[in-house]
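Consortium newsletter contribution from the modelling node. Members have asked for a concrete example of what our holo predictions look like. Here is one, prepared for the zinc ion complex that several groups have been discussing at recent meetings.
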Amino acid sequence: MTFTPTAAKDGTPTVCHVCGMHAVGIGIGKPTGDPRYLCSECLTLLERIREVRRFDPYEMKAREGGMDAAAPLVEEFGADLSEWSEDQVLRFVGTIWRGCADRLHKTLSEGEAPF
Ligand SMILES: [Zn+2]
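And here is the predicted structure:
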């Protein structure tokens, strides 16, 4: 689960290299190439992130978090997504994104690989 590039053409941080949330101006990239900026939450997990060799298992755990976060909205809005308003869809997508990031951060902070 990597999001690159993590900086706009003017160097402004855009998305976190690890979770895709809003990045701050500290990264784990090499002096040349993408700065691999991180968000403030991933910065607190920096040592764990450096230990991870493959993010695939973490991504699967993150997806479970997105699914869990989305379930109450499906219950609230109804199962037929074609009947949802644009605001409901935007809220749904934002909830999934946040749920994925929260589960990824939780999995990383627990310190053991999720397999
Ligand atoms: Zn992050």
